[in-house]
Amino acid sequence: MLDNFLIQLFHEGKCMEAYKVFGAHPEEYNGEKGVRFTVYAPHARSVQVVGDFNLWDGKLDYMERYTDGGIFTKFIPNVQEFQVYKYRIETSSGALIDKADPYAFFSEMRPGTGSKYFDLAGYEWTDAKWMKNRDKNFHKPLSIYEANLGSWKLKKEFTDTEDGEFYSYEELIDQIIPYAVDHGFTHLELMPLNEFPFDGSWGYQATGYFSATSRYGHPKQLMAFVDAAHEAGLGVIMDMVLAHFVKDGHGLHMFDGGCVYEYDDINRRYSEWDSVYFDCGKEEVRSFLMSAVDFWADIYHVDGFRFDAVSNMLYWKGNKFIGQNDGAIEFLKRLNSNMTEKFPGVMMIAEDSTDFPYVTKSVADGGVGFDYKWDMGWMNDTLRYFKEDPVYRQYDHNLLTFSMMYFYTENFILPFSHDEVVHSKGTILDKMWGNNDQKFAQVKSLYTYMFTHPGKKLNFMGNELAEYKEWDERKALGWSILKYPQHDSFNKFFRDLNKLYTTHDAFYDDYNPDSFRWLVVDDNSQSVFAYARMNPDGGCLVFVGNFIGNQHEEYTVPVPFAGSYKEVLNTDAAEYTGSNYVNSRAIRSKKGKVLNEENYIKVKLAPFASCVFEYHGEETLNSVRKAKAEAEEKARKEAEAKAKKEAEDQAKAEAEAKKAEEKKTTVKKEVQAKTKSDTVKKSTKAAPAKKTATKKAAEKAPKKASKTKKKTTN
């Protein structure tokens, strides 16, 4: 029977496992084996199940209304695997429409539009170790090979009158998986594998969000493909579109005659791609989409999801001037939070061309919660630069420096995706300026710049072949071009570059600002760039790129450490059909202030060439910092000791001066006291004599007076 708790969560917009309730599930009911069909159709008057098992007559298979919330269910015995079915829905107006099951696990091959019953149970996975150890690769190399399984190789190409023939999931196990591993890629990113009606939409306009496309086989064959990829050490990422869905009549559009999955407001309902926007403000739609993502991670062991057209979820119709789509933003936050909690090793990647802030910051920290975001600005600026005539590149130097001004605001992936090589845009090689040889020289420098620049890497299939032919989903890649030396050597170069990236930890600690340092950033007159990539505790590699046609015999490059610098890749090497103007011997750095560094090397640079040097020496960023910190601490302590001694000496001198002054004062006082004492003594000695004389005078006075009186009497 149905899980009432999951149904409650479904209506609350919190259900991650709605596919365990809805769709077609094997069940034993009243002693009979059969299938239970369950569908959400809130506007329907009634719903029938019609299919191969009842000769498409649903009069005996009306579904029961399970709740007042618009859920219908029906158990039907003796349904066989691969039998086709649909839901016949009576709308509120009384019309009858046949719809594919939104939660079907398998579907008819186009142009058929029916759902197929398929039991997903029973596949025995062998990837337990991989699943236990996988993570989001923030501190690991992440080099993604984006592929369209149908056109990577074809058994038979399409023509205007006949269908082509695809390889199956199982057949591709022995082809694309070892190829991707041999070329140094860490992950396959597969363009949408959910069911879709039109080949030309490449899967980005889907009808079956839980249905593995029947173009390449059935679901268990896809499970075997993912299992084999994991066994080979290759992760699998899948593209999904949560923003919009196809308008085809058998799909989600006006599913029960009303707006179940889309906006009720017609002005917000339709996209510029002639598709229909999901109303991510509806709780049941949120549960549907979250469950779709959970489904592929749980049932197919997918390691990551790249979500297309995220900008059209952050803003109404992708236009920031119309305003933010708060309902969709809240949905994305809920999805990312739930996936991170339930599948901590699964990557959530946004293809977003806007400047919406904090797309890759956690929800808890105020962000949207994605793990990575495609750096569309870097892609556009870089390709614009390499399209330019080299004469004018000096005036657009900032196109290659601007990316590092904002790089640490998000966790970026650098993409050269399928979008850059279709619809008359030209291939990556064809975008380069110049003649054929100049194009090849520059495209090698372009990729060297890409793989040494901070950020994870993504390349669409065919980029590694240096194709001139644009991608066409009806044609296989141009494998025959590898018979030409330039293309074959470029393929070898691409493989070597990828392996250089994946084997040097200095290249993939991307989101640590300490891992990157500009060395030459302002030489616009010569269009030369140089920077260091570092593991603060270990390796250091120096990139030098010459992006115009000048040749340099001794170009001075400041370097971060004293020691030896050995060239480990040069785009002009003979093995890559270059002129072999290379630095064949390790270069010992010289002491001397150049720009902001204390050491430098002089290197040879061919026209349009780039090279990478590996540092050999005792220094690391942290050791230099430690030595500098220790030297500063020593200097600080010495300065403190010196200041302390000077202060002590000053205090001692002042104390001695004070003591001397005090002594001087004491002596002076003693002298003054002695002088005063002597004066007092002298004064005291003279006083008796004076007193005697006075006394004698006093004694004589009466006598004199007596004589005078006597005389007067006579």
UniProtKB/TrEMBL annotation:
Catalytic residues in the record: D308 (nucleophile), E351 (proton donor)
Any one GO CC term of the record: cytosol
Keywords: Carbohydrate metabolism, Glycogen biosynthesis, Glycogen metabolism, Glycosyltransferase, Transferase
Domain Glycosyl hydrolase family 13 catalytic: 158-517
Keyword Ribosomal protein: no
Biased composition (Basic and acidic residues): 635-681
Biased composition (Basic residues): 703-714
Reaction catalysis annotation: Transfers a segment of a (1->4)-alpha-D-glucan chain to a primary hydroxy group in a similar glucan chain
Protein's name in the database: 1,4-alpha-glucan branching enzyme
Organism of this sequence: Sharpea azabuensis
